[in-house]
Amino acid sequence: MSLSLVVTENTTIRIDICPNKRTKRLRLVSGMNGVQAMVPLNYNAKELESFVASKRDWILKTSQYYGKLKERCRWLEPYTIYFLGGRYRFHVVKDRQPSTMISDALKLITFHVTDMRRYKQHMREWYKQQTSRIIADRLPVLASRFNVNYNKVSIKNQKSRWASCSKKGNLHFNLLLSAAPPNVIDYVMIHELMHLIEFDHSHQFWQLVKEADPDYKKHREWLANYSLVIRVA
Ligand SMILES: [Zn+2]
Predict the structure, then answer these.
(1) In which domain, by residue range, is 14 found?
(2) How far is ligand 1, taken at its centre, from the CA of residue 202, in Å?
(3) Strands, E, within the chain: which ranges?
(4) Are residues 209 and 123 part of one domain?
(5) Is residue 84 part of a domain?
(6) What's the CA-to-centroid distance between 39 and ligand 1, angstroms?
(7) What is the pLDDT of residues 121-175, one digit of tens each?
């Protein structure tokens, strides 16, 4: 049940009517969910209409205020991060010991931090641990599968690259790599391992990558599409 209040020629505000047996007199409530008229069960429609009309300025003012607030909340949506290709909301809470909890059911990651002002550093540390663990698990498997030897591995806070390798055979991976789905992380490792055979992005190089990862084009595309949204908020 609702009624419409015409404010200007092309603006009407919808007012939801909420009858309640405990409500004695007409009352308006404005908030993020719009405007509600609290009315007694036996309210008089005509009376409500003129009451609403008399509160026109107040309705307009509060609706604009909450409308803007709602718009700003939408921009706060960047409180999302990625982990293994999944999208999560995150919370930061102050605690005596730092820890991180992942709820897959709620799609929520909670960072318990000792210093709220340094939460981004805590998030980076957490990503670094996750990425290190995955690389330590998968890289030796992939290297022996494709019969290549690498030297040292490091996980770094690289600004613009997912990974790189040196002529000495040292491999560097971006600490945010664990944000990507597992098969995309595999592709990044395969890409660097193949550079140990073909250092340049030559035709032969891409041929080797394709043999090792037939879906490599899809995985490169994922990285290209997501590299802008994957960051520490
Ligand atoms: Zn490359």
Answers:
(1) 2-75
(2) 10
(3) 2-8, 11-19, 27-31, 34-39, 80-83, 86-94, 99-103, 108-113, 153-156, 163-165, 171-174
(4) yes
(5) no
(6) 68
(7) 999 999 999 999 999 999 999 999 999 999 999 999 877 789 999 989 999 999 9
